[in-house]
Specification:
The protein is an alpha/beta fold and 295 residues long. The chain contains nine helices and nine strands. Helix 6 (154-166) runs parallel beside helix 7.
Amino acid sequence: MSFRFRTLRTARRSTLAAAALALSVVLAPAVTAGEAAAQPAEADAGIPLGAGYMGVGYSEDGTAFRPDTRQLELEAEGAASPLATQLPGIDVSHYQGSINWASVKSAGIKFAYIKATESTTYTDPQFSTNYTNAHTRQVIRGAYHFARPNLSGGAAQANYFVAHGGAWSKDNLTLPGMLDLEAGCYGKTTSAMRTWITDFYNTYKAKTTRDVVIYTSPSWWNTCTGNWGGMSAKSPLFVAHWTTAASPSIPAGFPYWTFWQYSSTGSVSGISGAVDRDRFSGTEARLLALANNTP
């Protein structure tokens, strides 16, 4: 199944919602009433291969799964706010179409995560162009892999990711690769999901020497991994929490966040239509240190 690019973020969400409805009868596994009550809804069933992106499962994960467990610190945005010291960024895929990276850089964007791959067969058609042009315009960028734990093992998907854009180099402009975990538990138990993530992490680390960044929401992580703390000392957290508050909720098992996707409806010069807006919790010097793996 293929999808044409839509300039507005709402249009792509509507498209995927329609796909989910149309495919749910065909793809959803047969379960008894008791099984259905015991298991979280499988949002991944309606997302065709290639249609994943950062945030596609956020709303469904938040409504179908256990609620976030941490409280927000509500405070006004201003000179004394933590927001004043957080660096602005974006995440993009082919849904954003042609991007003018010179304009993005001029708009003050400090970093970008760019979709590279899914499973072991799909590479985003705009990845190479986006990744190269962001580098040319001196935007610190990283690649991300949209996880499909139901299609193949974590090690196999990490190998594919590294071979198709997810590798790393110490060049002042490349962030470690990121693993996008969302859109349902893919039929896996919490133990099986932990194993899948560990296999991906270990393979990526062996191939690149870097710790993979993990993107997820509190609801997804708390439900699909069972509040697991096993990655907190290894992987920087890229938390999804769309809010105007000064700080996000974070998954149990992580002590703090490194990146934060705070909106899916941002606007940035050089990009037509809506784009995800992100923040980095630190200074430009710390962002560069993360990119180059230096203290």
